[in-house]
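Write out the bound-state structure for flavin-adenine dinucleotide.
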Amino acid sequence: MEANENTAHHGARTPGRRATVVGAGIAGLAAALRLHRQGWNVVVIERAPTRRSGGYLVNLHGPGYAAAERLGLVPALTPRDIGFFTSVLVHPDGREKFRIPAAVAEAAVGNRALSLFRGDLESALYDAVAEVADIRFGTTVQALAQTSGEVVVTLSDGTRLHTELLVGADGVHSRVRELVFGAETEYFVDLGHMVGAFPLETVPEHVPQGVGATFIGPGRTAAVMNLGPERSSTFFAYRCPDPKAELALGAGPALTRAFGDLGGGVADALRQLEADPTAAYFDSVGQIVMDRWSHGRVVLLGDAAWCVTVFAGYGAALALDGADRLGTAVAAHGDDIPTALDTWETSLRPEVHKRQALARKGIGRFAPPSRTHVWAGELMLRAIQLPGIRSLAQRAIQRANN
Ligand SMILES: Cc1cc2nc3c(=O)[nH]c(=O)nc-3n(C[C@H](O)[C@H](O)[C@H](O)COP(=O)(O)OP(=O)(O)OC[C@H]3O[C@@H](n4cnc5c(N)ncnc54)[C@H](O)[C@@H]3O)c2cc1C
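---
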C-alpha cells in the first residue's frame, strides 16, 4: 500500500508541510500539537493498540510550566492540578511516621507549578490533538529512508508515508533511534533500578483521602496516592542487580517480590495489580545519552533522545519544553530543517544536562543505599519543617527547579 500524502482524514484542509511523529506519549502529542498550530499536516504513529493514560505524578514547573502555558494547556490542566498535598512517611506496615505539610513544597516551588497524574496530562494533549492530527494506533515504523528533501517511512501495516520531518518520540526504547542512530546499548546508561506505576481501580485502603503515603527503605520506595475514586495511583522504585530478569518476570510478580512484605496501602495496591497486571507501566531505569539528537530530517524528542528518568521528576516537563522549542525552531528556519534542528538542540542541551545530573544525584532519595541513609534522609525531612532550616531548603529546591 502506498500513501503519498500524510493528509488522512483532515487532508482537505491545509496543503501544508508533512510531519510524522512516532509515539503518542507526552512528547509525541505535544510535538503534534505544536506542529499542527504552525500549519503542518501531522500523522502520529503509536505502537500500542489504544491510548496509554497510566502513570503516577508528573510535575510541571520552571521551563516545563512555561511550555505548558505556551502550548495553551494550562486552562485544561488547572482543574486536574493535585496541588500541594500532605505527604505522610510510613512504616513498613503502613502506620504513619510523620507528615510533611503541603506548605513546605508549596513555598519551594511557588504558584507557577502544576502537579498532575501523567494520565491527565496525556488526556489534555490527546483532546487537543485528536481532531487535528491523524493518530494511528497499533502501528509502528518498520523502515526509514532519507533524501535531502524528505523521509520515506514504511509502517508495520505496509503503508508508506513521505514526510518532510520525522519526530521520533517513541520513548526510552525508541525504534526510530535504533533505525537511524544504532543499537540502544550505545546510548542507554543503566542506573540499576526498576520503576513501576499504575492507576488504582478502587480507592486504596489505609491511606486517607487527600494524602500521599510513602514508604522509603534501603534500596526502595513505594508511594500510594489517594485522591478518591478514579483519582488514585501508585508508584514503586527499587534497586536491582538484573533489570532484564525483572522485566522477564513481569510487573505483578516482580513488584510483589520487591514490596510484598509491606502492609497498608502498598499491600492493597499490589492486590489490585494482581487483578490487572497489564495496567502497569514497568521498566528499567536508565538514561539515554547521545551526542546528537537529529540526523538530517529525523529528530528524536523526549525520552527517546535524553531520558532523564523518574529520578529527575522532570521527564514530562522536558518533553513539553522540547516539543515547544522544536516548533519555534522549525518556524524560524523555514525549509532549512537541519539548521532548525541544530538550533533547537543547542537551546535545549543545557537544561537536559542539568536534569540528567540532578537525576543521578537523586537516586539515593528513592533508593537509599543503607538504613543509615534512610535515617539521615528522614532527619532532613523532619528538619525542613523547622522555620530557619525550611527557608534554606526551599531556596535550594527553588534553585534546582528553575
Ligand atoms: C503508560 C506510561 C506510564 C508512565 N508512568 C510514568 C510515571 O509514573 N513516572 C514517570 O516518571 N514516568 C512515567 N512514564 C514515562 C514518562 O511519560 C516519560 O518519561 C516522559 O513523559 C517523556 O515522555 P515521552 O513521550 O518521551 O515517552 P513516553 O511517555 O514513554 O511515550 C512514548 C510513546 O511511544 C510509544 N512507542 C514506543 N515504541 C514505539 C514504536 N516502536 N512505535 C510507535 N510507538 C511507540 C509508547 O507506547 C508511548 O506511547 C510513563 C510512560 C508511559 C507510556
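---
The radius of gyration is 21 Å.
Residues 88 and 99 are 4 Å apart (CA to CA).
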